[in-house]
Amino acid sequence: MKHRPNTLILLALLALCGGAQADTLLVERAQQKPAVAQPARGLSMGEVEARFGTPQEKLDPRGGQKRQWPTINRWVYPDFIVYFEKNKVVDVVAHQASPGEVGPKPPIR
């Protein structure tokens, strides 16, 4: 069996850690079935607002400077953020569930 060098290092570290407690990754929770209903891909802004209510915050749109860069709108709800390309849902991202959950670093503002 052929391993890449990074895989061997990771395996060695895992062996050294033994029974160490692992953090919950945001990716792992996001791959599970969501505990709260979330907007489906392809819904319009109007449909999302009708089903989930008014968002806590509507963030400033990004992109749109060129035809290849569509305008992206982001709406913040208590449990997730909805990303729209033009007027349609393209993605929904869950917020962190607990302080021990490891996720991406917050954006610099």
Q: From the alpha-carbon coordinates, what is the Rg to the nearest angstrom? A: 19 Å
Mean pLDDT: 78
Strand content: 15-25%
Helix content: 10-25%
How many strand segments?
Answer: 4
Question: Would you identify the regions where 5 or more consecutive residues have pLDDT less than 50?
Answer: none
Distance between the termini: 47 Å
Global shape: extended
The major beta sheet can be summarized as: 4 strands, antiparallel
Order of helices and strands: HHHEEEE
Structural class: alpha+beta
Task: Count helical runs.
Answer: 3
Strand order within the widest beta sheet: 1-2-3-4
Protein name: Lipoprotein SmpA/OmlA domain-containing protein
Organism: Pseudoxanthomonas kaohsiungensis
Keywords: Signal
Signal peptide: 1-22
Characterization of this structure:
This protein is an alpha+beta fold. It has a domain at 21-94. It contains three helices and four strands; from the N terminus they run αααββββ. The chain has a four-stranded antiparallel beta sheet with strand order 1-2-3-4, with no helix packed on it. The longest helix has 13 residues, at 5-17.
List the helices and strands and how they pair.
Elements: H1 5-17, H2 26-31, H3 45-52, E1 57-62, E2 72-76, E3 80-85, E4 88-94
Antiparallel strand pairs: 1-2, 2-3, 3-4
Keywords: Signal
Signal peptide: 1-22
Protein name: Lipoprotein SmpA/OmlA domain-containing protein
